Structures are given as structure tokens and as C-alpha cells.
Amino acid sequence: MTALHGLKVLDLSRVLAGPWAGQLLGDLGADVVKVERPGAGDDTRVWGPPWVQAQDTDDRQAAYFQCANRNKRSVAIDLATPEGQAQVRALAAKADVVLENFKVGGLKGYGLDYDSLKAINPKLVYCSITGFGQTGPYAPRAGYDFLIQGMGGLMSLTGRADGEEGAGPQKVGVALVDIMTGLYATIAVLAALQHRDRTGEGQHIDLALLDVQVATLANQAANYLSSGTAPRRLGNAHPNIVPYQDFPTADGDMILAIGNDGQFARFCAIAGKPEWATDERFATNPARVANRAVLIPLMRQTTVMRTTAEWIAALEAEAVPCGPINRLDQVFADPQVVSRGMKIEMQHDAFGAVPLVGSPIRLSATPVQYRIAPPMLGEHTAQVLADWLGGAVTTA
To answer: Which one is catalytic: 178, 329, 334, 387?
Structure first.
């Protein structure tokens, strides 16, 4: 038995934030039905290369689509037609949750907005994901991860420091705001379901990418709100902890993540510089932050004297947090990642064994199950109509 066995989720979303939430709910056991446009489907189906390719036909799907759409059943319904709208309303009447990421007001003309569906299913939890939310001056605008990373302050904190070669704002290498929004959406849905189970009442969840980006500025936002000074880009350095960044080695680079004075003292002993640990400029973290411009060059001159492997072996033996900077081939070959099962394969009728990244959730009593490979467009239309509606509504 899975944690969310019996929960029905109608996923009207596409691209990443909404589908990520839908996949997570599916991983936890929900029956997630993904509604897609006939003939086209989710935009990310064609966001390639690279592709997952069938051996005997021309069928293919973008790897991008594969990352966010397992444990879902796909139905092809045209929301622009009265028949399609009626079909989705019938499915919503049976659903526990609806996920959607249309523009504000985009579903109202179809009779598929929250108020319309609440009238036929008062217990419905309806989660709307937009760039800027349902209210405010930017509400009508479309929002995209890259845009939100810039508007929400993340890019002002990411990238090399001013004055360094290659300085300037930089986005994160994955669509992090979309991913975080999908996680917040999942949390909100589970909270709303708990409320529904207590009261019998559903509710509308208004989730905005910009809100999520601002909320997850975390300590950087707190630094600004407390000081009135906007943090600046520091490359890989930390604004509040020193040393906590990358350092060159004899054959590459490594990361030091020293979080307290004891760890720093142990590093100094291993590095052959025990005097640093008692130097008043470096003995405490506040002193190291104030004197980072002096300490970091001294450390860099020392770290280049050994290889990455030599440093990591010596530092790990003394419980000094450190690690390599891995490429993805090294990530998926790492013995810890292998041991934790973070690479999985799912059997697909068209594509054979499809490689995917596993869920990080480990539940002792109701573990995640991988039941359905990322589906072909409309693959489960007839099946879902029979399961949810008894086949009472014809395909649009």
C-alpha cells in the first residue's frame, strides 16, 4: 500500500512546476491523470534533443518530458471544445485534486476554473500555479523560470563577484524555481487534503513562482532585511561562513564546507598551518568573514600542493567537510548515489528500459513505487474513462 493510495489527481498542467508536483504525488501512490492536447500534448514532449527513441518506429519523446511525468496516465482531451470541457468537468467531479498552470482566468471561459468546479465538487483541492499569482499588478503576465530567477533576486546572488573575470549575474543550471514551486505545491496540496479530511471542505491554492523565489532566498533575504544592505555575488563563496567555497588542487578543484571553528582548526593542522587556527584574524568565524580577503588567498596557495583525492582522504579522516566537484557521469557512478538507488529504469512499451532519476523519499511503511513509465500522448484515455467515469462520457 502506498501513502496516497486511492487519491485521484487531475493534472491539467504542463512543462515543469505543475508536472513535478503531479509526479511527486504519483510517486507517493496517487492516481494521476494527465490531460493533454490531442496531437501535441505537453510542450516538453518535443523539447529535445536528447530523445528517448523507439527501436522499431519513429516514436520518440524528449528526455525533458521523461523527467517529470512518470506515474501518470495520459488522456488526450481538447479543452477548446464543449465536449472536451464536459469531459474534464466529469473527471473533476471524481477528483480529489486538480493541478493547473494556465494564465490567470485562462480556464474560466471553459468552465474549468475553481469556482465552476467547486460547484460540482465542493471537496475539491484546486491548485493554481502561475508566474505571479492570482492577484497583484503582475497577475496577468506569463512567468518563466529564467525570468523569475532574475526578477526574484536569485541571479543577483549567483555568479562571479564583480571585478573578477567572467563577473555578472548567472542563472542556476536547472529550472530551480519550477522545481521548488512543484515541491511547495505538493506540500500545499497535502495540507489542504488534511483540512478537507477534517472539515469536508476543499479549497483553492494560489501558488506563484515569484513568491516561491522570494521565499527561498532564505538567509540571503534575512541578511538584507536585517542589515539594509543588498548581498552581492560571491561566486562559490558563502556570505556568512568562511571558508565555505571551492579551492584549487594539484589536479583540479575541491569544495571545503567548514562550518565551525573546530573544523577549521583540524583543517589547519592537516594543511600544516596550525598557526592559522590561533591567529586572531582567523580563529573565529566572524573574524574569518571579516578577513576573508586575506585568508582565502593563503589557503589557495596551500591547497594546490596536493591532489583532490589526497585532500579528501586526509580531511574526511578528521571529519572536515569536503568533497569533489563531480560531472553528472561521476554523480551517477558515485558509490553513495548507486547505493541509494538514485538511478532507476522503468519498462516502457515503446521505448524499452527508460533511465530515470529516482525519488529521494524513503518511507519505511509506504515506500515510493514506480508503476507507470512516462506515458505516450493519450495512451490511457479509454482506460481512465472506464476507471473514473465508467465510460459514460465519450472521448472528445
So the answer is: 178
Predicted local distance difference test score (pLDDT) of residue 396: 39
Could you list the residue range(s) of the whole structural domain that residue 180 is in? 8-215+340-389
Model pTM?
0.93
- Pairing assessment for the beta strands 322-324 and 252-257 based on DSSP bridges: antiparallel
25, 361 contact by CB (below 8 A): no
Q: 37: which 3 cell numbers?
A: 492536447
Domain count, the chain: 2
**75 and 187 belong to one structural domain:** yes
Q: How open is the CA angle 198-201-206, to the nearest 5 degrees?
A: 115
141 and 68, same structural domain? yes
Asked if 131 contacts 209 with a C-beta cutoff of 8 angstroms, the reply is yes
The DSSP secondary structure of 58-121, one letter per residue, reads: S-EEEHHHHTT-SSEEEEE--TTSHHHHHHHHHHHHH-SEEEE-PPTTTTGGGT-SHHHHHHH-
Amino acid at 141: R
> Is 357 strand, coil or helix?
strand
Q: What is the mean pLDDT of residues 167-175?
A: 95
Active site residue 387: no
**pLDDT digit string, tens, across residues 148-165:** 999 999 999 999 999 888
The answer to whether residues 145 and 196 belong to one domain is yes
DSSP designation for 122: T
Quote the pLDDT of residue 391. Answer: 65
